[in-house]
């Protein structure tokens, strides 16, 4: 296995280098956080071994037998007029591996159609869709791999586009130390049919690394996630940043020092989260994303941009999660997640029927 693993990693890494670091991307909705847990932990890759199915499509190397027959629904109340949702089902097949099937949908609402003179001619809708098949397989007690295949469609009035993308991930897990480490190559692909003929745009490619560990004698798990590892400069602007102050006398722009710029760029790649588990059926999470904070902050006013938080309730086979992400004042999306394990629900129903039958028999015997 080692003989093939190193060439595979080199191939994936060089594939990632083909992506350019500047400019706009197509299919940006692939970067939305459909899981309330991931959104609450900083909107990036997380690596944790448990039975939560909401994280497996972001990290396909976590798809396993633990999620067999899991059904998941996600919904996010995004900005004005925009909502997005997803539905997922996971199933394990003997000797083949574990699979997850997901459909993602983004609705941007209804828009007014006008001609070149501004005359209204009707309305139109704008939507994004992605159908994903994920596969995961454990290579041993400590290693697992996985991949996603995404079929993408975007339709905006008379313009539409089809595309194909792949995610590839690997995870190392140490149960004794309660730690796990994941590496993800995200959105490797291309448009098959661009919005305009011949104009093929880039996909939002990314390389992410995630580490998590639960303390042995404390009900706390911390998460550290690194993103955009294929590029260094994360800032959108340079010395022409309109938010930089000017010298009152000379009028020169006062730019940060090289040291300050270096550390700002470094921490823009880092997302830090913490998960508190006071009881086995409840977890609370908080996170800080420095890149979001720097992009969305207003120098004249303090804000919680970049902070996120939420909770998850897990009662036997049913889970409910909620989180909020702060981007700007008045821009705080709400994320909802609901999941259940169909096999476990069936077992619970069978147990309840058996208990009721036993009670009836006992009552009849007493009579």
Mean pLDDT: 85
- Strand fraction: 35-45%
Helical coverage, percent range? 10-25%
Q: Count helical runs.
A: 5
Amino- and carboxy-terminal Cα gap? 67 Å
Task: Name the strands of the widest sheet in spatial order.
Answer: 1-2-3-4-5-6-7-8-9-10-11-12-13-14
Uncertain residue segments: 1-23
Helix-strand blueprint:
Elements: H1 2-17, H2 36-40, E1 70-77, E2 83-93, E3 97-114, E4 120-138, E5 143-156, E6 159-174, E7 179-193, E8 206-214, E9 220-226, H3 258-268, E10 270-279, E11 282-289, H4 290-296, E12 307-315, E13 318-325, E14 334-341, H5 342-366
Antiparallel strand pairs: 1-2, 1-14, 2-3, 3-4, 4-5, 5-6, 6-7, 7-8, 8-9, 9-10, 10-11, 11-12, 12-13, 13-14
Helix pairs in contact: 3-4
Model description:
The protein is an alpha+beta fold and 367 residues long. It contains 5 helices and 14 strands. It has helices spanning 2-17, 36-40, 258-268, 290-296, 342-366, and strands spanning 70-77, 83-93, 97-114, 120-138, 143-156, 159-174, 179-193, 206-214, 220-226, 270-279, 282-289, 307-315, 318-325, 334-341. A 14-stranded antiparallel β-barrel has the order 1-2-3-4-5-6-7-8-9-10-11-12-13-14, surrounded by 4 helices. β8 and β9 (220-226) form a beta hairpin. α3 crosses α4 (290-296).
């Amino acid at each position: 296995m080692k003989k093939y693993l190193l060439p595979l990693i080199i191939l994936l890494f060089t594939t990632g280098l083909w992506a350019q670091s500047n400019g706009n991307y197509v299919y940006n909705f692939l970067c939305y956080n459909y899981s309330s847990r991931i959104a609450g932990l900083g909107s990036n890759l997380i690596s944790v071994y448990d039975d939560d199915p909401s994280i497996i499509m972001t990290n396909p190397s976590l798809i396993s037998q633990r999620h067999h027959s899991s059904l998941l629904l996600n919904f996010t109340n995004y900005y004005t007029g925009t909502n997005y949702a997803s539905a997922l089902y996971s199933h394990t097949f003997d000797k083949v591996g574990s699979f997850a099937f997901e459909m993602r949908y983004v609705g941007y609402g209804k828009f007014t159609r006008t001609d070149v003179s501004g005359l209204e001619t009707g309305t139109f809708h704008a939507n994004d869709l992605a159908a994903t098949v994920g596969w995961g397989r454990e290579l041993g007690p400590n290693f697992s791999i996985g991949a996603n295949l995404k079929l993408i469609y975007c339709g905006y009035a008379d313009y539409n586009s089809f595309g194909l993308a792949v995610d590839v991930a690997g995870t190392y897990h140490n149960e004794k130390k309660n730690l796990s480490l994941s590496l993800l190559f995200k959105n490797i692909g291309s448009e098959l049919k661009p919005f305009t003929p011949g104009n093929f745009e880039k996909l939002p490619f990314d390389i992410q690394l995630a580490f998590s560990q639960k303390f042995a004698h404390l009900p706390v798990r911390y998460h550290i996630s690194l993103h955009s590892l294929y590029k260094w400069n994360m800032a959108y602007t340079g010395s022409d940043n309109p938010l930089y102050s000017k010298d009152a006398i000379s009028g020169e722009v006062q730019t940060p020092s090289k040291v300050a710029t270096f550390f700002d760029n470094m921490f823009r790649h880092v997302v830090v989260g913490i998960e508190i588990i006071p009881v086995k059926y409840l977890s609370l999470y908080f996170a800080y994303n420095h890149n979001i904070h720097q992009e969305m902050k207003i120098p004249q006013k303090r804000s919680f941009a970049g902070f996120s938080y939420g909770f998850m309730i897990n009662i036997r086979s049913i889970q409910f999660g909620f989180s909020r992400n702060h981007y700007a004042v008045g821009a705080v999306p709400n994320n909802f997640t609901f999941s259940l394990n169909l096999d476990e629900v069936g077992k619970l129903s069978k147990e309840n029927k058996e208990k009721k039958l036993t009670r009836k028999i006992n009552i009849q015997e007493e009579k």
